[in-house]
Amino acid sequence: MTITRARLPEPGPSPSYTFPPIEKSTLPNGLRLWTVHHPQVPIVAFMLLVRRGAASDPPGKDGLAAITADMLDEGSGDRSAIDMHEAIAQIGAQFDTDIGSDATVIGLTVLSKFAPRALTLLADIVARPSLREEDFLRVRQLRLHRLTQLRDVPGALADRAFLKLLYGVHPYGHSPIGNEATLASMTADDVRAFHARSIRPTDATLVAVGDCDHAGIERMARESFADWTGASAGVASANGDLPRGARLNIVPRAGAPQSELRIGHVGVARGTPDYHALLVANAILGGQFVSRINLNLREDKGVTYGARTAFEFRRQPGPFVLQVSVQTSATARAIEESIREIADIRGPRPVTVDELTLGVSGITRGYARNFETADQVARAVMQLALYDVSDDYYAQFVPCVERITIDEVSRVMAEHVDPSRLTTLIVGDLDAIGQDLGGLGLGEPVVVAHDSF
Amino acid sequence: MNISFTKHTLDNGLDVLLHEDHSCPIAALNLWYHVGSKNERPGKTGFAHLFEHLMFEGSEHHDRGFFQPLQGAGATLNGSTNADRTNYWEVVPSGALELALWMESDRMGYLLPALTQAKFANQRDVVLNERRQNYENRPYGLASMALLAALFPPDHPYHWATIGEIADLEAVQLDEVHAFFRRYYHPANASLAIAGDFDSVRTLDLVRQYFGEIPAGEPVPAVRAAASLAGDARLYLEDRVELPRLYLAWITPAMFAESDADLDLATDLLANGKTSRLYKRLVFEQRVATDVSAAQNSREMAGYAQITATAAPGHTLAEIEQAILDEIARLVAEGPSDREMERGRAQAESQFVFRLQTVGGFGGKSDQLNAYNVFVGDANYFDRDLQRYQSVTRESLRQATARYLDPSARVTLSIVPRDRAALAAPDSAPALVA
To answer: Quick one: B149 and B242 in the same domain?
Structure first.
């Protein structure tokens, strides 16, 4: 065997990967239990998914789902909030709470020898939280302080303001943390009511992945979750028209060395039949390092550390968004280039064969690495439960992506992305960039007030 | 519990560590160069990191971006630079390991012919934007720079941040970049680890072919420098923030040195998580702070411990400082409780097992083998590393705290809102950040 540097070695065929089987059962209270045997390391990852998130916040109570999730680990029964964390720490568990628009997820990853204790703790947290007034006031205060601090974080400002611009009063129009006014008016009773109404077993799935077996987990779960009952209230259907706001908006940040940008519009739901084609199209446009937008703004112009685009797939249509932080002097140019790239891929400059090959193989060839750890597999299983996707989704993924053609990429981008509808938001130094923005043809920039999102 | 491996040293000095794990059909390549910002000199900072960027821009036999062929083969890849080392990694489907070996060896052996002024100028702009994004335009983003500058004297290699000073980055010349490569980027200053689904015999043969032909290069002498603090350096910096934040920092033992593990556990029980002493006191009970955290930042020549807390509105950094000093004094006087020791051991055991889950990337098994090989000189150290934590006693932790978290030899840094210098901890002077 001799090597040559005359050309790159051709990679061998990708080893096939088979997603492990999911064992399923339903407990008497309606809680679904989905487990996967993944015994490589003596660990079990538990994730309890409740399909209620920030989009279930009642009107005027933005932030209620998130503060409820935050309150779950603040004590149960005789255990105080501190005792609860002491119990988590004594088994070396990794605990996290994750809240999005459509779901709340409580995760607990432990050494498998601690799985029984972890499951009991998880049930205490989710099904039997104390939700005490005193703890609520402290947690709310911390979240209000967090909001205060977020006023100085350009990325957080941009995310929050951009959602409001895109969605207005729609359930996706606020970030999970809510805002100062809604949090200030919230009470512990609101939290208890939300827990009673929305954190219920009938629309919840307990995922366990790792060095464990289904029967053993089921036996323990039946016991731990026995007294958790009731049905979740339905999710309010999205009402309220989407706003039709200004095309160019700015949250002023005097003296900022960079402009934090968001460019996008409301996109598509996870259930779209064009899901795989959009993944490929996005990879080429802005979803990977060698995407058009990153190569343009970073590798050609050097005006950013990195740029990316994403279709945020949710149960209802989520945002399509480009996000990038560019040096202040390049703000107008970066906006112009970004919008041009988005427009071009729809037809004027369709993807090439090379781009398509790279986009597809980048997603498919390394597919197995997405399922290396128990946490990764648990998250993958959870996606199926969250979005009502069939169990053969992971088995079908690679062939589905490999079937995507150039015409399909052009079609889905033309159908789901519309340059004339793009909303642009800048968090940046208005005095420094104001005069450059006029040339963009997007109208005068509208100043977005801090208290409007 | 361990990461099993075989070690081979090529004639040119390159260490090769192979760890087979066939549970997932992927292979991880991880390459360390024993060079970081500690190898820079004042006036020439930011070099090691800027160089890392250039390593992705092409080499003699593949004179274009490194991402395209690797991503096309289904790989993820990245690199990082810190004060002590630079690492590069790819995680590939098993069938593409040779491609990763080809590319890593090409940029080790044949980078300079492809390293042009245009690439250099572009990546310098990118790095200046990385600095703006992660430091200048980020609340409290300059705190780490101010801390390092106050902890270590101007000629100490930990005085400057790895990202570098703006003026230095703007002054770098291409010929300096070439000289830097010749000095530090060669087999004798590197360690290659491969972990995952591959065959060791065939892979070692490929490694010999791809890397064996690269000349050894001059050995790099270890950087040595000493530092100590003589008093309480009290500084403040104005920033675009709403709430003032206090940082206390001390010089501590180096990575893997005696007391390093004790201080890891001590900082955890003082200020990490809701069970920590300072969280309970400052955030939970008294509510004078909105958050608190701590770390023993271990490095090759020395470490530094830090405790950080943000004042809740209406409360002062002076109150917080006093509470932190009180809790340190109490730990020194009474030592940790048995319960705290039990918790620390349980968390260490879990963290070590969790570390066995990934073959590649930052912190994966291949990265850990390289860390042990380069910093300890023995890749077979995983188990003994865990043992360091399991053998900490109440008394050793108490003594380490007493010796190193000394209130009279520290840095006290306040980050305050613009034009609100009065909110800094008492007697603070303006800090300088370059």
So the answer is: no
